[in-house]
Amino acid sequence: MSSNSFGTLFRVTTFGESHGPGLGAVMDGVPAGLSLSEEHIQKDLDLRRPGRSSLHSQRAEPDKVKILSGVYDGLTTGAPIALLIENQDARSDDYKSLQDIFRPGHADYCWQEKFGLRDWRGGGRSSGRETVARVAAGALARLVLEAANIKVTGIVSEIGGIKADTGSSDWSQAREHPLRCPDEQAAAEMKAAIETAQKNGDSVGGVIEVRASGVPAGLGEPVFDKLDARLGAAILSIGAVKGVEIGDGFALARTKGSSSNDLMDPPGNFRTNHAGGILGGISNG
Amino acid sequence: MSSNSFGTLFRVTTFGESHGPGLGAVMDGVPAGLSLSEEHIQKDLDLRRPGRSSLHSQRAEPDKVKILSGVYDGLTTGAPIALLIENQDARSDDYKSLQDIFRPGHADYCWQEKFGLRDWRGGGRSSGRETVARVAAGALARLVLEAANIKVTGIVSEIGGIKADTGSSDWSQAREHPLRCPDEQAAAEMKAAIETAQKNGDSVGGVIEVRASGVPAGLGEPVFDKLDARLGAAILSIGAVKGVEIGDGFALARTKGSSSNDLMDPPGNFRTNHAGGILGGISNG
Amino acid sequence: MSSNSFGTLFRVTTFGESHGPGLGAVMDGVPAGLSLSEEHIQKDLDLRRPGRSSLHSQRAEPDKVKILSGVYDGLTTGAPIALLIENQDARSDDYKSLQDIFRPGHADYCWQEKFGLRDWRGGGRSSGRETVARVAAGALARLVLEAANIKVTGIVSEIGGIKADTGSSDWSQAREHPLRCPDEQAAAEMKAAIETAQKNGDSVGGVIEVRASGVPAGLGEPVFDKLDARLGAAILSIGAVKGVEIGDGFALARTKGSSSNDLMDPPGNFRTNHAGGILGGISNG
Amino acid sequence: MSSNSFGTLFRVTTFGESHGPGLGAVMDGVPAGLSLSEEHIQKDLDLRRPGRSSLHSQRAEPDKVKILSGVYDGLTTGAPIALLIENQDARSDDYKSLQDIFRPGHADYCWQEKFGLRDWRGGGRSSGRETVARVAAGALARLVLEAANIKVTGIVSEIGGIKADTGSSDWSQAREHPLRCPDEQAAAEMKAAIETAQKNGDSVGGVIEVRASGVPAGLGEPVFDKLDARLGAAILSIGAVKGVEIGDGFALARTKGSSSNDLMDPPGNFRTNHAGGILGGISNG
After folding, report:
1. Can you tell me the distance from the alpha carbon of D258 to that of A190, in angstroms, rounded to the nearest whole number?
2. What pTM, to 2 d.p., does this model score?
C-alpha cells in the first residue's frame, strides 16, 4: 500500500535505498515563483552529512543534490520538484554478513515478515539514510515557511541521560556545534558519553527539542488533522523515534489544571505556554 | 479544509457539536458480512457516559445510538455505516456566559481566530463530547479487529501524579472500575486526588496505557505511514492529549542501545519489548 | 475500501440506502460564515423529488432534509455539516421479488459478487435514490460557488434520440419545466417518447448539458487533477452515466486542429469555445 | 496544490518538463517480489518514442529509462520504485519564439494565469512529453495486472474522421503498426489524412479504443470510486482528451432500455456488453 508520501496541499514523496542507485524526493504543491537553487538544499545536506566528526557514523558521502524538475530560470514553476541524491559510497559488501541475520532494534525482521524478501544492504529502504531525502525536502519546506515568516529551529536537548539547559541558552549558535546542543557544558558531557559508548561498541539515546516562531493563530484543522496530530505523525515516522511531547507534554499529567492552563490577558496575549502553542489542535499564535 | 476523516481503507468521518442536534460518524470501508447491532455500539457508549459517578463531569445524557445505513438484516453490507447520537441534555443556556469569554486551556480563542466565529455552546465542535462519535466508531473498529483476533485494551495508569502498577495487575477487570485503573490501591488514591481537586474547583491530569495483543507481524507501512506514526496521530488528535510514547518511549532516550534493543532467539521470538512491538514502523508480532 | 467520499478541500461523504432508515451527506471543508438554512437545501430536493408528474418514477417521498451539525445561528461554523433525509415511503415489500433475481442493467449482480451479500430492497446503496444525498450536497456546494460568483446550470439536451436546440434557447426557464429542457418543441416530443416507452414497459436514454459561468482562469491542477478529469470522474460516478464530453468532445476527433483550436485576440479573449473553457486541464476564464 | 499523483493503494507520482533535466515517476504500493528490469519498461518507451516514422512529431530522443529505487536483485521489494528518463534532445532554442506568445489549444495561457509564470520551453510541464512518465509507469502497472491475469489492449479506432472496423479486426498485430490501427484499409486512409494535414501545417483528431480482458467481477467501489469514474478521470487527465465513453457510451442515450440492458442467462453469463462490463461502477466479469 502506498505510504511514501506525506501531506495534502504540500505533499512530499520520497524514494530510495541505502545502497541502491540513489535517494530522492518529489515535492508537489510548492507555490510558483519561489527562488530555489541546488545550493540552498545542499547547505542542509552538508549539515546532515555523517562522517564529519568522530561522533557520527563513518560513512563518507558527498551527498550532492540535483534538481530534476519544477525549477526554471531559478524560480519554482508550480510543477512538482524532483530531487535526486545519487549514492556513491555504497559499499554493500560491508553488509554481506547481514544477508542472513536480523539486526536487533532494526526493521530487518519486520520487513522480511511483511514483504517476504528484503534489500539487506545497509537496511535498504529502512536505513537511517532515508532521512537524506527528508532533509532535502525540509530545505524546500523551510523556503515556503520563510516566505510566511515562520521559523523552525531544532536542537539536541538530551543525550545519554545528560540534559541540556535549553531554556536559558542561546539556540542561534547550536547549528554550528557538531552535536547541535546550545548548552556548551552539557554538550561536552554528551560528547564524552557518546565516546564511552562507542568504545564499548554501544550506543546512546537522545531527545531533540523543536521550536517554531512566527506561527500565526489558526493553523491546524479540527478534528483529525489537529496541528499536534500532524506534527506528531511526522516526527514518529522518523526511524527510532519512540515518543513525542507537545508543550509540557507528560509533565502536564502531573499538574493541576489551575497551573497548566495558559491564561490570556488580554485575549491573544498568553502569559505562559504549557500547551506548546496549540489549543484544540489549532495554533494560538 | 476537510479534516474530519481518519483512515484510508477503513475511514471514519465524524460530525456534530456539543449542543447541536446530534453527533455522529460515517464509517466507510467496513467489510461486508459482519454481524452488527445497535446494542453492540451502545455498550461502549454506556461505558463512556458521563454523570454516572461523582468522579465524572455531570452532564446526564442517555446517548442512544441509531444506525442510519450500511446494515441490513443484522449484517454489514459493504456500504458506509452512518451512526447518529442525538443530543438531549443540551442546556446551552448554562453556557451563555461563555459567549463573550475565551476559556483558558480550551480551543475557544483559536477557533475564533481561525474561523471568525464560533459555536460557543459548550465548546461546540471542539467539546470533549466530540469523542462520543469516536467511541461509537471505535466499537465498530473493534468488531473488525476481533474478526482478525486482534484485541486492544486500555487502562488508566496515572492520575494526579499517582502511578498505578500496570505491569503486575490484572487488566481484565479494569473496565468495570469507574476509573478504569487495574491497581486497586492506586485507584483509591486517584479517587481522593480527583475529589480534592473538585473541591478546589480544579482538575488533574492523567496518563493512559494501551496494549494490543494478537497483532500479526507486518502491520504498518514504511515510510510515512509507520504503525507508530498513525497510532500517534490518532491519539494526539484527541483533545487535551499532549504526549505519546511507544514502548518504553522517552525512557529509551536514557538507555544504552545494548539494553534497549529487543533481542530475538530464535528470530521472531523477542525476549523483551522495549520497542512496543514496532520496529521500523512495522509490527513485529 | 472507503469510496463514499469525493473531494479534497471540500469533501462530500454520502451514506444511506433506498429502503434503510435514511440517506445523508457530511460536507467537510465548508468555509465558516456562510448563511445556510434547511430551506435552501429543501428547494433543490423538491425539484429532484420523483412522483410529481406522470413522467417520473412513482415513489412519493416528502424528502425533508434536516441539518444535524455545522450550522449555528444560521451560519456555517467551519465544522462538518451533516444532512439527513429520512426514508418514509420505503415499501420494501414491493421489492421482495428482487430478493432472488438480478435485474439487468442494475448493480445487483456485481454487488453480490463483490460483497457476497446485498441489500436487495430497491437496489440498496446502488439505488438511484443515492442521488438525493448528492442533490443536498450540491445545494451546499452551489452556495460556496455563488459566494465566488460561479454559476452552474444544467439542462436536458436529448431524450430518446430527440435533440434540443440548446444553443439558441433560453436556459433560465428550464428549471421550471418538468423535463428541464429549454427547447419547448423538443420537450414536447421528448414527453411523447417517454410516454410511449412507459406504455411499452420500456425506458429511454438521454443526455444532459451543463454550463458554468463566472469561472475564473486558473482552476484545475496539472497533471492528474485536471479540471476536466475531476469533473469527468464526478459525472461518471453517477449511476447509469456512460459518457462524458468536454467542450465539443468527440466532435473534435473529426475536426482539424486549425478549426478546433480556440484563438485568442487579444490574449485571454477567446473567440470560440471548442475546448469547453479548459486547456491543459486548467480553466481559461 | 499537490496533483501529480494518481491512485490510492497503487499510487503514481510523475514529475518533469519537456526541456528540463528529465522526466520520471515514483510508483508506490507495488507488491514485493515481482520480476522487474529496465528492459521491460524500455520496450514500452520505445513504442511510444516519436520520430520513428514520418507520421509522428519529429523530436528524436533515445528515452532511456533508469530505475533509481525499489528493485533489488531483479525483484521489486515493496519500496517505492522511482524511474528517471533524462532529456537529451532538449533544443529549447527552437521554442524561444514561444516565450512571448500563447499557442492556441495549449495550456500556455492558463498556466501563466494560474501560476504567474511558466516554463515556456516546449510547453514545460504541460507538454505532451509528460506522457513519457505515464508510459513508464504503465509498463509497471501492466506487470501488476498481468500477475492477476488482466490484459489491457488499446488501439486507434478513428483518425481524421476515418473509422476503423474495430469489432471484426484482429487487435493482436496493431501494436506493430505505426498507427496502432488493426484495420489495415482504414489505417492506410488515416495515414493519407495525416500526411495531407501535415502538408497544410494542420493536424487531425482521433479516437482510441481500449479493452480489458480477464477482469474479475467485483472491481470498482461504489459510490464515488466507481470503476468507470476512476478510468474516466485517468483518461481525461491526458492532455487533449476531450471525451470518454464506457461501453456503448453516448449511443446508449439513443437506445431503449429494452435493447441496451445486458441480459444474463444464467446469472453471470452476459449475452451482450452494452455497458462496457461495468454495472453500478463495479465490474461484472
Report:
1. 81
2. 0.93
